[in-house]
Design brief:
Layout (H helix, E strand, L loop, with lengths): L4 H5 L2 H11 L34 E3 L8 H6 L4 E4 L4 E6 L32 H27 L9 H9 L4 H9 L1 H13 L4 H8 L21 H5 L25 E2 L27 H6 L2 E2 L4 E6 L1 H13 L25 H4 L7 E2 L14 E2 L20 E2 L8 H4 L3 H6 L41 H4 L21 H24 L5 H29 L1 H7 L22 H5 L12 E5 L5 E6 H4 L11 H11 L1 E3 L4 E2 L1 H4 L14 H11 L5 H7 L17 H10 L8 H7 L10 H16 L16 H7 L4 H7 L5 E2 L14 E2 L25 E9 L2 E12 L3 H12 L3 E4 L2 E4 L3 H9 L4 E4 L6
The structure holds protoporphyrin IX containing FE (HEM) and calcium ion (CA).
Calcium ion binds next to helix 11.
């Protein structure tokens, strides 16, 4: 029907398939295996201007994403594709990647640091003693946790702390176990440095000499399977990412869940082990909340070229790459770090060490209205000592580090199974019944945890109506899917895409079972995901030149050979705790519903919609959220944040205040041991600042002024606050320091991923035809194909402009769609007309071979008759094995579904 184009769309891959088989391909369904190198199509008669001295050609917009800034400022770069039917953009070929070297892994013994003479020889006895003391501390920690419970100091359901810890940082049982048991080694190391007065910058070097086992310290690291031949040669990545990097037996594999973040720089813990950093003068650093208050709030600084999708896609990618394990009580519940009334816990109860609450100043212009002095903050959990030696704390990632859509498929086998239907390779969904004239499509499946985590509906107090009973939290590969309505909409698009591709693959390859369809679909989706990230998203974030420098540019044709088994793909601690949180500066205070006429129907105030999924259900709302993200300008990365996250993060209904995300970010950086901003300037090639005024090269004067006021030394400045405040680097969304950290990370995720989508000669490599189809992917196309937005601009991260105008989703010239035809596999059980070699077996022993002719004889009976008349039928393919098959009826069965195609065996039998 007219109102429901989706039903017509559902068969789109078949359409393009039949197009290939029966008629000449239209311009839009360009033949599989597009030209190489990029050859302008004949109809592109228009002359394109030179761009930056380079010759340019008219292409679909997605092939110009990386040039967009240049294109926008060069006149005459809009062009017509396909005999004037589709809108295109003129841009040059991409430059050749350079692929410069990545950050070096820091070593336990710092260059230039002399060990004190008394540490030249240390006996194991010292460590044993420290280990005993550490064990006592551990016992006392467990004791104080018991006291907390006795005194009924717990995290109250529905409080913002509950949302932060139990819902946002939902930790899996084994992650909590690893985190808690790893504390033995942490306490032992802390006791050691304390007792023997080891200087912080020597601690790692000295501790590294001791094996935890020798010191009698409990250390439980998960045991990983060895990589067998099947894992090494599988075309599909494992769900956990294990054996992506083929690890030597007994070692800890890279990139798998519950392994540590790596570091670009050695940490700066005050004690060299786990104590948060202190100021250079030995005193306290400025309280995070004071720094946060120095930021500018709620001044809307719209981006002149980006859409809100840049923010939202970033968060989605973030949820693929990482989720830090937060410390939990030994029983797995949230750690309370303040009283429910917002005061500090008394000394006695504080002693368990998992907390470093954020101090709220007495005169806080906001929180003082609510009598709040203490903001909850539990430390990130320590990772196990995977190298078996003592040392400083590293934090751990609960997700697969790889870009593998783990936010959709799950990072562990159990969850991955829960998300599947095990029918036709599809994922579970919520089917919303059809109401009214809207076409309602599937939503992600409900989380079946039950009412314990039932904060997903807005109460009557906010909406004036009782929450409808069907409202549930959604379930996905990452638990943070429910964090905002935009996030739900983003995940919805990908889960619909999975099911569409699966449906088409299954139809095309009837002989594939559920597992095969699921894995092939997952492989295609992850490849599309990679292409969007490196072709559309990373360019916006770090700019073309930085991409070229680090080898991040996607190829226009052919294969890459960039995989390097020595590159550790793991997420950098600096990336997780600071750089990739750049996105918080882009978060808008409201999310909106905008209809197809581009009329804003409704604003959702963020504070009311954290972990509320109610708005995802009404028919058409997902579309309206998707349109809003493509329509509303994004923001700039700067020191301007919305109050919705700096005062009202995870606000409990009716309280009037929530948490402050900027304070959490700064505190998290200290919690995870990040050195100061100045160190990262040096790492990233900026001069080390000696005075505050040296910061003016990349920071605005107003910011430098504030830093000078608040920090005692330039070396004290926290990475996060300075990083977001930097002026954007040329061509980039972020400043040079975040740009350098983010680019290094995306280079690792490319070079260190054996299943990266454009690699040649790897187990997971695509054929060239397949790869060229994947390259047709754009984010706009995925949004178009999995919603009813009906029209959009082709570069969805970029605002609508003359160069990037809104086009109809059906316009395949402007927003191409990949064809799945190269995934059509010859089905050995469904014969096509032609000649086949048949192996002969006598009771399954090989006796020889013959040629079989398949021809079309009409109905199956004819076939059987001819068989008997001419040659007789003796053997055929069954269940994937060549075997004798003497009975004619089975032969009939095999031919029947082929509508009269029949195998004829000339002459020779046994
Ligand atoms: C409404 C939008 C968002 C909300 C409510 C939100 C909320 C949060 C919260 C509460 C944390 C944990 C803070 C802590 O205790 O350390 C966090 C961490 C983080 N956020 Fe966001 N965020 C949002 C958007 C974004 C965006 C747009 C990006 C990136 C483009 C992003 C990247 C990150 C990263 C990388 C972390 C670290 C996560 C971890 O270590 O597990 N966030 N966010
Ligand atoms: Ca992942």
């Amino acid at each position: 029907t007219q109102n429901c184009p989706y039903h017509q769309k559902a068969s789109r891959y078949e359409d393009s398939l039949s197009g290939h088989l029966h008629k000449l391909p239209t311009f839009a369904e360009q033949p599989v295996s597009s030209a190489r190198p990029y050859k302008p199509l004949e109809y592109d008669t228009q002359k394109c201007p030179d761009i930056g001295g380079l010759e340019s050609q008219c292409r679909p917009a997605k092939d110009c994403a990386i040039w967009y800034d240049d294109v926008r400022t060069t006149p005459g770069t809009t062009c017509l594709l396909a005999n004037g039917i589709g809108h295109g953009i003129c841009c040059p070929d991409l430059p050749i990647n350079r692929g410069e070297s990545l950050f070096e892994t820091p070593r336990p013994c710092k260059k230039g640091v002399e060990l004190d003479a008394r540490f030249k020889r240390i006996e194991l006895g010292w460590v044993n003693e420290a280990s005993r003391a550490g064990r006592l501390l551990m016992e006392s920690m467990i004791e104080s946790e018991r006291r907390l419970a006795e005194n009924e100091i717990t995290v109250r359901r529905n409080s913002s702390r509950y949302m932060h810890s139990t819902i946002f940082f939902q930790s899996k049982e084994n992650s909590v176990k690893i985190g808690n048991s790893s504390l033995y080694a942490v306490f032992a190391a802390q006791q050691f440095v304390k007792r023997y007065r080891v200087k912080a910058d020597q601690a790692a070097c000295i501790l590294n000499r001791f094996h935890v086992k020798d010191a009698g310290i409990y250390n439980e690291c998960p045991v990983y399977p060895e990589c067998n031949q099947e894992m090494v040669t599988s075309p599909y990545r494992t769900i956990t990412g294990v054996c992506n990097n083929v690890h030597p037996p007994g070692s800890v594999p890279w990139g798998v869940p519950n392994t540590r973040y790596q570091r670009a720089l050695a940490p700066e813990y005050a004690d060299g082990v786990w104590e948060p950093r202190r100021a250079q003068n030995g005193g306290q650093l400025p309280p995070p909340r004071v720094l946060s208050l120095s930021l500018i709030r709620d001044v809307y600084v719209p981006s002149e070229s980006d859409t809100t999708w840049v923010m939202q896609f970033g968060q989605f990618v973030d949820h693929d790459m990482l989720e830090t394990v937060e410390s939990k009580l030994v029983d797995g519940s949230a750690v309370p770090c303040c009283t429910d009334g917002g005061d500090f816990l008394s000394e006695e109860n504080l002693s368990h060490g998992k907390c470093i609450p954020v101090v709220i100043p007495e005169d806080d212009p906001f929180y003082s209205n609510f009598g709040q002095r203490c903001m909850e903050f539990a430390r990130s959990a320590p990772a196990c000592r995977s190298n078996g030696r003592l040392g400083y704390v590293d934090q751990m990632n609960q997700n697969t580090h790889f870009l593998d859509l783990s936010a959709v498929y799950g990072s562990d086998e159990e969850l991955a199974r829960d998300l599947r239907t095990f029918k036709d390779g599809t994922l579970n969904v919520t089917r919303v019944k059809r109401k009214g004239k809207h076409c309602i499509m599937d939503l992600p499946p409900p989380d079946d945890v039950g009412p314990e985590i039932s904060t997903c509906a807005l109460s009557k107090a906010v909406t004036g109506i009782d929450p409808p009973p069907e409202v549930r939290c959604f379930k996905a590969g990452d638990n943070r899917i429910n964090v905002t309505p935009y996030m739900v909409a983003s995940q919805t698009v990908i889960s619909r895409q999975h099911n569409q591709v699966a449906e088409q693959l299954a139809a095309m390859n009837a002989h594939w079972d559920d597992e095969r369809v699921y894995q092939e679909t997952r492989r295609i989706l992850i490849a599309q995901w990679h292409h969007i990230i490196y072709n559309e998203y990373v360019p916006v974030l770090v700019g073309r030149e930085k991409m070229e420098q680090l080898g991040l540019l996607p190829l226009q044709y052919g294969f890459s050979t960039d995989y390097d088994a020595r590159v550790n793909p793991s997420i950098l601690n600096e990336f997780a705790a600071a750089a990739f949180r750049y996105g918080h500066s882009l978060v808008p205070g409201k999310q909106s519903l905008i209809n197809r006429e581009r009329v804003n129907e409704k604003d959702l105030l963020l504070r009311q919609h954290f972990f509320k999924t109610q708005e995802a259900y009404p028919p058409g709302n997902i579309d309206k959220l998707l349109i809003a993200m493509a329509t509303i300008p994004g923001q700039t990365v700067d020191n301007v944040f919305t109050e919705e996250v700096t005062n009202h993060l995870f606000e409990e209904e009716g309280k009037g205040f929530g948490m402050d995300l900027v304070s959490l970010n700064i505190q998290r950086g200290r919690d995870q041991g990040l050195p100061g901003y100045n160190e990262y300037r040096v790492l990233c090639g900026l001069p080390r600042a000696k005075h505050f005024s040296d910061l003016l090269d990349v920071l605005p004067p107003k910011v430098v002024e504030k830093f000078e006021l608040l920090y005692d030394s330039v070396d004290d400045i926290d990475l996060y606050i300075a990083g977001v405040s930097e002026r954007p680097a040329p061509g980039a969304l972020v400043g040079p320091t975040f740009q350098c950290i983010i680019a290094d990370q995306f280079a690792r995720l490319k070079r260190g991923d054996r299943y990266f989508y454009d690699l040649a000669g790897q187990a997971g490599s695509f054929t060239e035809d397949q790869l060229n189809e994947i390259r047709k992917t754009s984010y706009a196309r995925l949004v178009c194909d999995n919603s009813h937005v009906l029209s959009t601009q082709p570069l969805i991260f970029k605002s609508v402009s003359d160069t990037n105008p809104i086009v109809d989703c059906n316009c395949l010239a402007s927003i191409p769609r990949m064809s799945l035809l190269p995934w059509k596999e010859a089905d050995p059980t469904s014969w096509n007309i032609g000649e086949y070699e048949v192996k002969w077996f006598s009771d399954c022993d090989y006796v020889g071979f013959d040629i079989v002719y398949i021809e079309n004889l009409g109905p199956a009976e004819n076939c059987a008759r001819k068989c008997i008349d001419t040659v007789g039928c003796n053997a055929f393919w069954a269940n994937g094995n060549w075997c004798t098959l003497k009975a004619i009826p089975k032969w009939l069965q095999r031919t029947r579904h082929n509508g009269g195609l029949c195998g004829l065996l000339p002459g020779k039998f046994f």
